[in-house]
Give the backbone structure.
Amino acid sequence: MIDTRVSIAGIEFKNPVTTASGTFGSGREFGEFVDLNRLGAITVKGVADKPWQGNDSPRIAEVYGGMLNSVGLQNPGADYFIKEDIPFLRQFDTKIIVNICGHTIDEYVRVTEKLRSADIDLLELNISCPNVKEGGMAFGTDCKMIEKVVGAVKKAAAQPLIVKMSPNVTDITETSKAAEAAGADALSMINTLTGMKIDIYRRKPVLANKIGGMSGPAIKPVALRMVWQTAKAVNIPIIGMGGISDAEDAIEFIMAGATMVSVGTANFSNPTATTDTISGIEKFMEDQSIKNLAEIRGII
């Protein structure tokens, strides 16, 4: 008998598969394709303290091995999310992880405070947002800034805090250790790599924002390496993500040290990617006589 259950910060998940923020909305879009009850958790699109308009179009571009996006975390804000999306999600037997975003530490704290009494399970702090008070540099690329924002959000939060790490750094273990030291209960990694695409006929970038976040299968080797490195450097659980398309990808991340995995860009090309991955993990465990995922976690 296999046991796919995993635990993060005292929260138990029926299986290790969730969705990557920004690729699954609030679950409504995928409800007709997959049984949301099957998912270990749903990680929703970024939520801010107030509605965000997002960036100008075009803001999506297909590239070899994945896609670029500069959506800019467009969202209707925390009040709408609490009123409309949480009641919808609570119809299903799955955990709710809320990705939060902000341009300043005060904005991060305000959305965290709005969610304190909300019926959700965990928060995921997106520290790849541009810090408007520091010239637009992402919070997640500087250890001191990571400690400040994680510490402030942790102090305001009622739920366990996952910190979503930016890969656009020299040493992912240093920034991860900074997040852990500031109170992170878990890490999710990696967020998108920064990329660009140029239309040579129009002689200008394809994206209105010029650059965007790259995701998809092409970034998987980078993500896998970063999870493997970080799992050896911190003592908190990791949710691995970055190019996961199927069960084999997911199992690689678990063997590298991840406790859970997130399926993101694959949802756009295969709406059942999440449940396919869950079924594939179960079959692998049965075929390999693995009773519990702890048997293979971090064995590399």
